[in-house]
Amino acid sequence: MTLRYVGSDLFLRSTYSYLCIIISARMKKTHLLIALAPLMGACAVNTGQVEVTVENPATASPETAIVELPASDILGRLGSDCFVVTDSEGRELCSQLTHDSLIIFEAAVAPGAKATYYVAASDTMPTYAPVAVGRLYPERADDLAWENDLVGFRAYGPATQAKGERAFGYDIFMKHYSAEPVLERLYEPETSPAVWAKVDSLRAIDPVLAEDFIKTFSYHIDHGLGMDCYAVGPTLGAGVAVPLLEGDSLSYSWCYDKAEVLDNGPLRYTVQLDFAPRAVEGDSAVVEHRRISLDKGAQLNRTLVWYDGLGSDIDIVAGFPLRDNPAFVQGDNILAVADPTQGDDNGKALLGIVFPAEAEMAPVIDNHRLVKTSISPDGALAYEWGFAWDREGKYPDIQAWAAYLRSVDNARKNPLKISYK
């Protein structure tokens, strides 16, 4: 696997350096290229500031939203390469410069209300504790795992596929709400050679002792940080989108082949996943791409899916496997399913999808409840997927969760009105 900067016409280069990760099943050597300072060096500073007005026209929306501003225009107005964001009371807010040249910050603007923020020139770029972050875990079969303050996710990589493990969908990590990242702490004992050497030594003495020791660190058990109690296997998992083939069969894409991390906090995590060529209907070498972004405060990932090599329009579906006759809400381009999870009394994973307005509900296929739309060879699907853990109490049941999904859909149809001067 290789770590490098991304050079792609799909994404604009940022004013500042960012870390990109290229993972390939065909690459065996590891190279690191990490730029730790802004490309521009010390910031040229002006004393100006830009006043930003944010208005929320939605009738219902999530509690917070990420405001996006064009970095080139804002920094040009400031006459500075560095900036700081404050609210109307002068409180400094966490901000980020993204890979596609956006200044972003978190705003809490109630439906029908407006708020004022300021972007001011700074002599240095402030640093903030990361919230929306992730990384590749080559020590755990090329897992790519990411999280924010509410939820965690995993996509399986080429090493998993090379073993023949049929893990087609997204996995999820239940997380007790915390701005502190926890995935590193969940993975560390699971991937530690020293820990597993102790397991082996205990097994040689007494297998029961070994299993008891595993229970003290396994991320399949909640030790206070969260846990993995969701089963993926040969399914769409927590909301993968795939082509719907003639005869109503699903074209599973298996594990990603390459991954490029474009943003890694503090407020936004973005990754692009590319998949090995496969046959889709009459097209023999179709390459799938996904660009996934998770923001602080969001239960859902925003995802763009497109394909190279399509010869005609295709139907595309996303959804969730059905286990133990789960409760669900379906309609108005949202889908919510209450997955029972695995293990004893681990609560429910409230899975959710928000699809484009032109979407329609599909029949149950391969024991999946699905939502459907179509894309052209040069088109793309933009949708959102994710979950909530009912144990955290914010969404105690499927109806409360469906209301959240509708608020996300309402906010998408009625985006923030942003102006600045």
What can you tell me about this protein's structure?
The chain is mainly β. 14% of the residues lie in helices and 38% in strands. It contains six helices and 29 strands. Strands 17, 18, 19, 20, 21, 23, 24, 25 and 28 form a nine-stranded antiparallel β-sheet that branches. The longest helix has 16 residues, at 398-413. It is globular.
Q: Descriptors for this entry?
A:
421 residues, mainly beta, 9-stranded antiparallel beta sheet, 5-stranded antiparallel beta sheet, 29 strands, 38% strand, disordered N terminus
Any chance you could write out the topology, listing elements then pairs?
Elements: E1 2-3, E2 21-22, E3 49-55, E4 65-70, H1 71-78, E5 83-87, E6 92-93, E7 95-97, E8 102-107, E9 114-121, E10 133-137, E11 143-147, E12 152-155, H2 158-162, E13 171-175, H3 183-190, H4 193-205, H5 207-214, E14 226-227, E15 241-245, E16 249-250, E17 258-264, E18 268-274, E19 278-280, E20 283-295, E21 300-308, E22 314-321, E23 328-331, E24 334-339, E25 349-354, E26 360-365, E27 368-375, E28 381-389, H6 398-413, E29 417-420
Antiparallel strand pairs: 1-2, 3-9, 3-29, 4-8, 5-6, 5-9, 7-8, 10-11, 11-12, 12-13, 13-14, 15-16, 15-22, 17-18, 18-20, 19-20, 20-21, 21-28, 22-27, 23-24, 24-25, 25-28, 26-27
Helix pairs in contact: 4-5
Helical stretch count? 6
Report the major sheet: 9 strands, antiparallel
How big a fraction of the residues is strand? 35-45%
- Mean pLDDT metric: 88
Q: How many DSSP-defined strands? A: 29
Class inferred from helices and paired strands: mainly beta
